[in-house]
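Practice problem: predict the structure.
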Amino acid sequence: MGWIKRLHEDKTAGGKRMKKDFGVTLIAWSFNDSSGFGAARYAGNLLKELKSMGKKTREIDCGGYPSVPWDPSWRFTGYFNLRVLSRIPATPIYHFTMDRASYSIPVLRRLYGVKSVVSILDTEYSNPGEKGSHLLRSGCLKKAITDADLLIATSSSIRHDLVERLGADPARVREIPLSIGGWIAPAKKTHEVFTVGYLGRFEHHNNVEFLVRAFAALKRKTRAKIRLVLCGTGPELDGCKKLAIALGIKDVEFRGFIRGDMVSDEYNSFDVFVFPSIVEGFGLPAIEAQCCGLPVIVMAKAHIPEEVTRYCHKAADEEHAADIIMGICEKGFRMGDEQREYLRRFTTRSVAEQTLKVYEELL
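Answer:
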């Protein structure tokens, strides 16, 4: 525990060297930013950027977990916390980029004096496929709220939930958005057919059936050659396929899971992106699509953070969405300079710099 002695020495000397040279341990389910999962992309982007800035970092991921006859949610969380505790602390700050390992925080503080930061990416925890998962995940969130030194809310709506609904101390909550990898960027269009696209999960709250019905309404309004491309997987995928058949939609393609390193190419194969989710803690695909220069349509009554939907078209219903798409098809779209400048706040460098300031608060 030599670093504790060094920490004390640095603080008694004014903390100047520690503020410059401190190290941080990042903890995540995965740092694979090409996995297609938003949490992994967030952690991977942050790790890469901190390293590129010359910061001392180490990482702890889940590393897979043993196959035992327990409920998957309990198995994952229990193993993850033990894995964190089994790695002898080497830095004064631990940043949990997800709350599933937050049960280890009080142990790390008591044994090693570790300061902790927890990023909260979502406050709605439920998974019908895992028995008891809601109870366990809400428990992890509550432990993070109770025990972490500082919390990072990744959107304004998450900050509101943490403070107003879950009782977090507002003085301990910082708001920093998710970041967009540098490979997410506009590219020259090579396709000829106007393409309406979606990329994301097929869960109930993603409401992809809304887009299928909107596209059917669009086809009734115009004879222009337009196609619908849907990317992703999830429990509602089969239902969307059946709905497309029932509505007689022929110009539709289901492309399945898209790897993270192929996401930008996929966005750039679209002419308009529709994000029909009912509720999102952040809504990363909507920002990624904008960073690729696409017009984005969301539902007018959706609970998605304002900072994500600020420059999006808002559709009241399927018919309205169809009208917006038809207008973009006929008139085209050109992103304004104001929107381009605004999107800079979501770059990996901007997010890393804001996160470093949070670490420095703890020293």
